[in-house]
Amino acid sequence: MRILKIRKIGESAGIVLPADVLEALGYPAEARLHLKAGEEGFELRPYEPDVDETLERARGMAERRGGGL
Hints:
The chain has helices at 19-25, 49-64; strands spanning 6-9, 12-15, 33-38, 41-46.
């Protein structure tokens, strides 16, 4: 288990992942990721533009019908 520190980055905050952790995850530096909340914590997944497009279309449909996702 690793202890990571949340650092201030401008008006935001971020966590720096050590190089060996990135390598073990299989993500290069500057990779875009999806962060998903789950029952047992958070999960990182590779960024997939198709997922974002599908979610945006679903949100638009839900708003037009007066509901939410």
